[in-house]
Design a protein that fits this description.
The complex is a heterodimer of chains A (476) and B (96). Chain A is α/β, with parallel strands linked by helices and 476 residues long. Chain A contains 15 helices and eleven strands. Chain A is globular, with a radius of gyration of 22 Å. Chain B is flat. The chains are: A alpha/beta (476), B mainly alpha (96).
């Protein structure tokens, strides 16, 4: 089997049994990257020299008989809104085109400690704002399965890099579906962990009460291994929590709930058909499935598009042309300090970012706070309570990951609201802080169709146990 | 409804220079999005507490002790600023 198709465990075994060297792994992935990336635009930067050096260290450790950590020699890609020391971190924005990270994000440090090889930084919608990858200031990423289609977003490059076998796994960030939706569009697995399960230190903040870093990989087992490697409380992120481990479950005894909203308007017919087929597959295995009611589900997008932009407008106020990033400060024609702010932000922020900052600023502005932000935070509580109620009856909630199949490049670019509706099924988990995973199910009209499983907080293990079971059903 | 003047005001608050064309387009888009968001008014939120953190129920405290950064890291951070003089970040004058 080709190295690029191997799972993390297979790579570990191959290395320790000396079937191949770390150097060979790096070279085989670099060959693919140099061949495929010019068309796909998944990577913004490639760390060839460092990757080869790291491989050399690992190969020497193998020679001396040292025990290898699980991720040693495993090739990974990092979304370009997560800091890697000494490397550029653009967040897909012109405003950070010249920004060099002074330190590692906690997740990156953890991967490096396990000797994973970071091969490059991946493309994304600017500041992780978008559902198609088209809002990157450095050009759109294309879907490796069909280059006329979007790979989803905002972790567009991470999903495309895994799907095109240009890395073994990647990290992304998920604020409203940005790991799960591109995973679904590219036919791979993507996890958004419980809010607080993974440290956000070193992640460029978008909406702090929703952001969570998560892994993308070819299969559930790999995603589980990466999650185990990156989770845990971090003193540098006060919102990170101690992880409460759930015990193993028997996937055959799991009770599945399907919100009735999944069969209603707003979902593409092909998607509903795909969901029905997934239900049939599970029913054949005598899995308990019932329709459930989450009445607040249909308010998710409206709630999200108040909470998120409000936090965006506040988080992105730090980009002022003074402390770092691109700036017009040094231009001789600049007169007043306030012009530095206006001109820098006007010039270097992209369309979607401006739109969301404006929306958030409006929602938080004097006289509107109660009507928008406060109300949305209350609706958020309602959504969380509705989920709590549902989880009294079922163990997992199943939905399609996206209300539509992958769409073509350019198709939704001029209609922001249509683009926002792409988040319909993924935002509720972010609003309620719940873990959710996207799993590839099948191809429909030659395009990947993925399903989403949502679990109670800290029940990632349930997602992995059932996810592996479902994966097996799909492969037989 | 959010007027063009209103959009101008928000852009001022957000410290973003928008061209006339951007303003025009932004108004149409914001009105459409705000109109959709109105949907939330259908829900009764009377007796609900607002969510701040979706998981943690209590505050997190730590001692207010400054941590020392390495000189190197400090230097790297200063180097990122667009305009500096020695170890200072240089900006336009604030007072006349």
């Amino acid at each position: 089997m080709e190295i690029c198709n191997l799972s993390i465990k297979e790579i570990h075994k191959g290395l320790t049994q000396k079937n191949f060297s770390a150097r060979e792994i790096v070279e085989s992935f670099l060959e693919r990257i140099y061949r495929l990336n010019p068309e796909l635009n998944a990577y913004l930067e490639i760390f060839e020299k460092e990757a080869i050096e790291k491989a050399k260290e690992i190969d020497e450790a193998i020679l001396t008989g040292k025990e290898l950590p699980n991720l040693a020699g495993v090739i990974c890609a990092i979304k370009d809104n997560i800091l890697v020391e000494g490397k550029r971190c653009t967040a897909g924005s012109k405003i950070l085109e010249n920004y060099i990270a002074a330190y590692d994000a906690t997740v990156v440090k953890k991967l490096k400690n396990q000797k994973a090889i970071i091969i490059g930084k991946t493309n994304l919608d600017e500041f992780a704002m978008g559902s198609s990858g088209e809002h990157s200031a450095f050009g759109a990423t294309k879907n490796p399965l069909d280059v006329e289609y979007v790979p989803g977003g905002s972790s567009s490059g991470s999903a495309a890099a895994v799907a095109a076998r240009m890395c073994t796994f990647a990290l992304g960030s998920d604020t409203g579906g940005s790991v799960r939706q591109p995973a679904s569009f590219c036919g791979i697995v993507g996890l958004k962990p419980t809010y607080g399960a993974v440290s956000r230190f070193g992640l460029i903040a978008m909406a702090s009460s929703l952001d969570q870093i998560g892994p993308l990989a070819k299969n559930v087992e790999d995603v589980e291994i990466i999650f185990e490697a990156i989770k845990g409380k971090d003193n540098k992120d006060a919102t990170s929590c101690e992880y409460f481990e759930e015990k193993e479950i028997n996937p055959k005894e799991v009770r599945i709930g399907i919100p009735k909203e999944c069969f209603q308007e707003g979902l593409q017919k092909e998607v509903i058909d795909g969901l029905k087929e997934a239900i049939e597959v599970l029913e054949r295995e005598k899995i308990h499935i019932e329709e459930i009611d989450i009445p607040s589900l249909k308010y998710g997008v409206a709630c999200y598009y108040i909470v998120m932009p409000s936090e965006v407008s506040s988080n992105l106020s730090r980009f002022d042309g003074i402390k770092y990033g691109m700036s017009i400060l040094t231009k001789p024609e600049t007169q007043e300090l306030i012009d530095v702010y206006f001109e820098t932000r006007g010039k270097f922020f992209g369309k979607e970012v401006k739109r969301r900052i404006m929306l958030g600023t409006y929602c938080l502005s004097s006289g509107y706070y109660d009507a928008y932000y406060l109300r949305a935070q209350k609706v958020r509580t309602k959504i969380a309570l509705d989920f709590k109620e549902a989880f009294k009856k079922v163990d997992l909630i199943l939905t399609p990951t996206s209300p539509t199949l992958p769409f073509k490049l350019g198709e939704k670019l001029d209609d922001p609201l249509a683009m926002y509706m792409a988040d319909f099924l993924t935002v509720p988990a972010n609003l309620a802080g719940l873990p959710a995973i996207s799993l590839p199910f099948k191809n429909i009209n030659n395009l990947p169709f993925g399903i989403q499983l949502i679990a109670p907080a800290f029940c990632e293990r349930r997602l992995f146990n059932f996810g592996k079971f479902f994966e097996e059903l799909c492969s037989t | 409804m959010l007027s063009k003047e209103g959009v101008k005001h928000v852009a001022r608050l957000a410290r973003i220079r928008l061209t006339e064309e951007e303003l025009q387009k932004m108004q149409g888009e914001l009105v459409k999005i705000l109109d959709y968001i109105e949907k939330l008014k259908e829900l009764d939120v009377e007796n609900l507490e607002p969510t701040t953190h979706s998981i943690l129920l209590k505050n997190v405290f730590r001692e207010d002790k400054p941590e020392k950064k390495s000189k190197e890291e400090g230097e790297k951070l200063i180097q990122l600023s667009p305009q500096k003089e020695g170890r200072f970040i240089k900006i336009k004058s604030v007072f006349k």
